[in-house]
Fold each of these.
Amino acid sequence: MAFKSRMCSLCKGRKLLCGKSKCPILEKLRVFDDIKKKFDKKLNKNEIFGASPPSIFVGEHNYPNVRIAPLVPPIDGDTSFMDSPLKWENKSIKAIIKYRSMLVMGETKNININIYKTNNKNSKILESIQELAMSLKPVDSEITLRRKPSLDIVPCGFAPPISPKGDLLKFSIAENPKIPSKSDYIVNDELKATDSIISLYNYGFDEYYIVKLLSAGLLGINKKLVPTRWSITGVQDTIGKYLTKKIIDYPLINDYEVYYNEFLGNRYAVLLIPDYYAYELMEVWEKGALFGCDNPPVLGDYEDLKTKGYAKETTGAFYAARLSVLEYLNKRKRQSKIVIFREITPDYYAPVGVWQIRTGVKKSFDNYAYKFNTLQEALNKIDELMGAPIEAYRLKSRILSKSKQMRIDDYIF
């Protein structure tokens, strides 16, 4: 395996020249080596049988002709923990990499996103993948690959947890998937994708299940495959907009509230301001973090009720973090302005997906709520909790600069 990074070649994982607390390359290699020792006979062949969590993947490269894949581990039983972020809240980065590395990906390439253009051979694979996506419980499945699965290691930790993979020749489901009647009804109904997502959410299905349905081309009137990464953001954004419409009719909170949490090498501080809805996420990648530098800038995105367009600096993190706060406010039947501060430390040595942002912010509301009478008091507390100076955030923030002018009662009363 050849490393493209000169720093990685010089370091060899011993000196930690990149500033990370652990070498992400060696961590992935150690995890995969452990898996190979345990499951070598089951992995070292081109036919893999096991219980898919269930798990699917739709790539975005070469869009609109994409790659699709079922993911199957070489074990049976309850494998749901391998592909369920809801079960990862108390797990380490190493454990998550291990779960993902046990799933073998059988890829079919150059599938047009318009599912009705799929040829006969690939349409059978797609139908089986769609059945898999609709199941709530693990499904005994078998994949046949052209060759034994291979594991590609991307240096410097930029790649998310990846699976052993190979070109798919055949995919079959060995049992009837457990498909909920409500999701089956929505999939077969003439509903827009947005309406389908909200209906499923209100029925109590978690967003990760909904993401699989959207990715597999099962939602909407003109059904199409949607790359997994786009589906995650699309579902979280759709639910977020739905909740925003609800909370703007609620009364304001009474105090300035601050919540704090540390999760998988990330720090999160959430500031709720007693004012009408607007939302902002700011983040700093510290020196030694994946995308850190000597003088890390504050990145940020903002929205109010008039804002349109995609979050350009914080991308998918913007929608994941927003959804957790909106659910909290909706539960309280209250409205506020929202400012989230995120700092990524070197301990976040390998990316595991935006679910950790969703979870990290969500868990902050399980912790102590600091309440203050003024904005300045709240910002002083955040300055204590976070690493970057609060003034750096002030200079970037649109909400904090506006709030300083608009909330005159902070200074009068």
Amino acid sequence: MARSVYDSLGAYVTLPRPRPRPRLRLKHCLPALVGLGQLFAVFCALPHPMLPSGGTSGKAPRSVAGSQVQARWSEPPEPFDLKGRYTKRLYVSPGGRDSEGHGTEHRPFRTIRHALHAAEAGTKITVLPGRYAGIGSVRGLAGTAHRPISVAGTGRVVIDGRMRDIGLHLSAPHHVVIEGLTFKNTWPHGVSIDDGGVHGSPARFLVLRNVRFENIGTGGNNDCLKLSGVDDFWVLDSEFAGCNRGEGIDMVGCHKGVISRNLFRDIPGSAVQTKGGSRRILIHGNRFTDIGARAINAGGHTGRAYFRPLTSPFEASKIQMVANLFERTGDSPVVFAGCSSCVFAHNTVVYPKRFVVRVTEENLERGPGRNGTFVNNILVLKADAQCRRNVIDFTRLVRPDSFQFDNNLWVVSCEDYR
């Protein structure tokens, strides 16, 4: 029998029971390497990259392969809702009634949508276990910094769109928390949050925590979570699976976000995408397993009208990808696609199927990506044809001289990793 240890970054480490005079094989070392990679990310001298608010900043130079890596660092900001308080309570139950219910625990509403329309700053909506229809669109949902609006599931709460309806669309919200919900069989997206099309007035201060996405979309550009024009947001402790040909999280013109401790698995497209002028996003401590295309697409190709702001010089900038675990990715664990000053550090990559990293330009109307950093990663490759070809891909029109690749540990394995 083997015993499993679950570390704080979400990686399972399997340790075989000791035997007399064991024969050490690489397949016994691979799981430990994965775990050590995560511990390496936590305890190594290079801390988390800086986000725009919270923490104490300072300079942390590091000598790597004869060069100096200069960066500024601080801890990521805490979710804004940790200090929030609620002065109004509403309840939703599959057995409730919108027309005659009062939203109380004994006379709950039937639909989450009805409760959202009755909510005001400081309202906590408790959703009781059961299956609910797609919530639909809600505009202008507005809490405050100390009195947010929360939608929280208790037990197993499933929002089932039956492949006809979106799970939830929030237009121009701020100070809103969504947690403990499962979105399933929704179309075209699971959850979509945007600024209502008003550039310069983003949706702000949003937390998605312990949210699950299953079987989203019908094969088009259908995302589990679509964010357009959203600033100051957190996506935490959630699971993304079956985002059909879209992304797990697709960000267009989003800024100052934290994506942490999530599981992305069995997604035929890409898992996380930051484009359209997205800036200062921390992607930290996540697990990416069996992603068909790009696990993280730092940049991309966005139409002119969708950039936020419209004058953004790059598709993405200052995207920080730190201490993640990547297993059996399709195209590449990370693609720098017109990304400026982006960092991929302290990650563990196991058995990528094609490339380890790609650097490309896909939007020739914006500035070329530059000043990228790929350092302090553990990279485990199979001892097959992959080792006899280039696993780092620089396409034309990029500036490879401005990218830094240093201090990475490369491991070649003849064993299977399960």
Amino acid sequence: MSQNGRSPLRDTYDVVVVGGSFAGLIAALEARNAGARVALIDPVPIGEGQTSACATTIDALRALGAEEAVQQVHRDLVVHLLPRGARTPRTLSYRLPYRWATFDYRQLCRLVASRAEANGAEIVRARVTGGSATSVETDRGTISARLTIDAGGWRAPLASAVVPSHVRRDELSCGLEAEVPQPLTARAAGLHFWAGRGTIWPGYAWAFPAGRQTRMGVLAFAEAGQKSPVVGSASRNLRPALDAFMDGPGAEWWAPDGSDAWTSAASKYQASPTRVMVNGAPMHLHGGFIPCASRPPVVGGVMCVGDAAGHCFGLTAEGIRASMTFAARAGQIAGGAAVGRWGVQEARQMYWRFATSRWPYFALLRLLQRMVARLPDAGLAAYAGAAQPWPIFWFLMAQYRWAADPVPVLERPV
């Protein structure tokens, strides 16, 4: 039963999960499926507070039973290289070896939450203020647990309360995104990225079509603070960068009223793109910091998943599959401990081994991000071109999938 009021909390659970986005919801669902008494804590209603571009593999959504949240299926990845001073980009297209999809964040979160609640998990509206491996302090009181899981995003509110140095701010990239209508007569397909010194750098811009909408955003790598006089730091000047993208290379990809693309409609508006009215309402922007390096998966006994554990790839900044993968296994392991299949300390060790087994690949992509951030435009073009032949690209994408594939974890619980 959800506890959405403001009455004081006094209770004990087998597993308490902090954070109600992808990672927290899946961890709570899997722990409850294993037989644990579970509480999930988040300060906002489930499905609110989107920070993701919301694209993942069709197979991952199918394994989660969330295909109904799909908005558009994509078979191609498209990279637009825009060197400094160039007017038009060089476009490289890559056929994806497995299908991806953009999906509705709110619908997916509420779908998973409803399943967890139907199975007996409790969702609690509260703000975490501290805690430990066996308790979570909130603004409504303290909840005790045999095991705690921090899925509270990059801030890791529970883990950082135990070990304040857990969050490394120098390992945070930052993104900002707008969800806007696609032009009526020019609906797009594929996952599109713009890179090079003619756009935000070091980092990239993107456009992800999602049915009648498209998600357009910019990402500044963590290296932006040292390398880019335009960005200045990973979080500074992202809105001007998004304006420049939506008014420049991305102008043909969106329409304020869902009719004419910005390329032809801009003269009607006396404002920069992110300040225009979209279908009669102010444009909604969302985003935030994105870890680009792995963190310890267990901190002072707290199991960490998703962004709280740095489960986001460097270079691509993709974190959904990793969040799903590690959250599902953490929930299964914690649930197993709750019903006596193994001890609490053994559960933490099991999760540590599982999570760290993928560290080498995460470290590789963190290294690639550092290397790519230093490349000149010609080097970036050579790097992108080398991966374009389909045997090479499909091999790389097979490794990319292996490193964080939620399908076998969801289909074959421990």
Amino acid sequence: MWKKFSILIFNNKTWVITLQYMLISCIILSIVILIDTGTLSAEQYIPSIFLTKVGLATTILSALAGALLSMTVFTFSTIMTIVNFYSSNYTASTIDDFVKSDIVLKVLGIFIGGFFYAVTALLFMRETYEHDYVIAGSVGVVYALVCVAFFVRFVQQILYGVQSTNLIKDIFEEALELIRVEVQARQKFADTTPQVAALEVPLRAHATGYVSAIHYEELAKAIRPFDGVVKIHTRIGQFTVEGAVIATLYAEKEQDELHTGDYFVIQDAKIPAIDYKYHTSQLIDITLKSLPPGKADLNNAIHCIRKLSVLMAELLQADGQFVSAGKEANNLIYTVPSTEEELYYAYNQIIPAAENEISVMLALFDGFYTMKRAASPHNAEAVEQFATHVYKRVEPNFRDTLDKKYLQQTFEK
């Protein structure tokens, strides 16, 4: 249930955070109005420095409303500029990450909420209260200072994010955390094989899109009364079409058909928080953007390849073809991609684009060496075979004697 709620929040994150700060503004506004109108007697608890006359409060709120509206427009323009920068230099997925980042949505939310507070508070500044003291203006000043702090944080985030090294570092760390969780699961629950059963029931996709999440515990609970096992053919982040077989139920007796929509989340958007391939694909895309005929920043491409190699080395530590979905879902089994498949889909776009760049190829074979050292014996052998395949493909492209020499040395490590 909590997982479904988290997915709902993620899919509506822009609205949730914006409305959250508007709600906070409404709560502050309600308390201020109750105090200023005398409905809530709290003047004796408020320091005199926070009390101002209605005229001054009106002036403060009027200036604040105009300033916050201007800052909202300016912030939105800045966001569009950064989106254009990311589009030109990085990938579409990094734009999604930036637009949905907490600080961007919080800044917009707090500015919109502040404008709402200032304009609404002005409605309650009556002439009959002209000689009374109110706190609406002082609270508005405090709110403005908070807005400034958020804007400074927003600027710092932009200055940090436009540096490619920092962006790659963040992508790498997010992917590494997810891969370590995946490796731990493969090592703990590997070598599980589907049992032979009297009935094999195909489970078909209820929609077309990406498999963004799988509710393992709920699916395991649903099939437990039938003494069944489900073998999941699809993987998180994989694209499927309506009607395609995404899993198979092995059961000993007849049972009602399972509706995959209750257990498989299929939608147009991937969920980065649970899909390590989402992040590795970002590194691949940035690498391709950095290779000719793009902006031809070979050092950036090499940096991405090194980071990708470390991630693959971490992933290839675990063996196993079938893995159960966990202790509480041991009647669910999913297929682990082979080492060759992992390597092929990680590098099949990079190799054709970089096969004539000796510096990139050297970094690539250095990466294969890193993988062989970290991988299990079975996976290390597969890496060796894949590296040999790549070497035979790219070696004829280099005619310079030194290029051939150092390429061979790096390959034979």
